[in-house]
Amino acid sequence: MPVTRQEHWNTIFTTKAEEAVSWFQATPETSLRLIRACNLPKDASILDVGAGASHLPDGLLEGGFTNIAVLDVSAAALAKTKARLGNTGSTVRIIVADLAAWQPDLTVDLWHDRAVLHFLTEERDRAAYAVALRHAVRPGGFVLIAGFAPSGPERCSGLPVLRADQGMIASLLGPDFDLLDAFEEDHQTPSGGRQRFVFTRFRRRAG
Ligand SMILES: C[S@@+](CC[C@H](N)C(=O)[O-])C[C@H]1O[C@@H](n2cnc3c(N)ncnc32)[C@H](O)[C@@H]1O
Predict the structure, then answer these.
(1) Which of 16, 22, 39, 108 registers the highest number of CB atoms within 10 A of its CB?
(2) Is the Cβ atom of 161 under 6 angstroms away from ligand 1?
(3) What is the whole-number distance in angstroms between the Cα of residue 37 and the centre of ligand 1?
(4) 54 with 190: CB under 8 angstroms?
(5) d(C-alpha 65, C-alpha 45), whole Å
(6) How do 155-156 and 93-96 pair as beta strands?
(7) Atom of ligand 1 nearest to the CA of 22
């Protein structure tokens, strides 16, 4: 029987040490820098989608942010985050959901995605992602999406990925999102490899 998305990712997060996965970052510096550039108040609602066991919430809590949610298809990934944060992270909301089918019940000032959109290789899944994003992000809110650039890897974690440039991401979001930043950057994997990423930051037009 084929392995579901949830099973695939739960297996990864239960069998591999966190530094053993190619996407690991001790501190997600570029994401944190781009979030600071949004000049959000400390009680802004921040959602990290496809969060995995990323250390982004740790950095956000250190920066004084108080309204953080993390979403992932893998409950095992989010359990790692919960365990690592302990009491410090008691206010971090955990959402176990598949972005290809998720109906948001929250409104956010910032949507952050590092390396999940690129796993949605089916057009209908990307369309569902965009619908969820548009439901969740308030007018005037920010969207930060990072994924493999056109010269990046073709696969990750044993799965095919869709490499994209800023134009492809912009057209998925639609005309009411203004592009504020876009650049490529190499991610150094824990095993010493390099992966080309594109980082984008958008702002939804107010009203
Ligand atoms: C490459 S990891 C990146 C994790 C994290 N953003 C980071 O930078 O460390 C991709 C993550 O996306 C999650 N994921 C994959 N497909 C998903 C989907 N359809 N809905 C929600 N999460 C998904 C996986 O469970 C995994 O945690």
Answers:
(1) 108
(2) no
(3) 24
(4) no
(5) 9
(6) unpaired
(7) 1
Give yes or no for residue 1 having a pLDDT over 90: no
Question: Ligand 1 pocket test: which of 3, 8, 9, 71 has the largest number of ligand atoms within 8 Å of its C-beta?
Answer: 9
Q: Which domain holds residue 173?
A: 5-204
Q: Is residue 100 lining ligand 1, measured as CB closer than 6 Å? A: yes
How many Å apart are CA 200 and CA 17, to the nearest integer?
A: 29
Does residue 89 have a pLDDT over 80? Answer: yes
Confidence of residue 207 (pLDDT cuts 50, 70, 90): confident
Query: What is the number of structural domains in the chain?
Result: 1
Nearest alpha-carbon partner for 69 in 11, 112, 10, 24: 112
Closest alpha carbon to 158 in 11, 1, 53: 11
What's the gap in Å between 207 CA and the centre of ligand 1?
31
35: CATH: 3.40.50.150
pLDDT digits (tens, 9 = 90+) for 118-166: 999 999 999 999 999 999 999 999 999 999 999 999 999 999 999 999 9
Per residue in 59-77, pLDDT (tens digit) is: 999 999 999 999 999 999 9
Is pLDDT of 2 > 80?
Answer: no
57 C-beta closer than 6 A to ligand 1? no
Determine if ligand 1 sits within 6 Å of the CB of residue 111. Answer: no
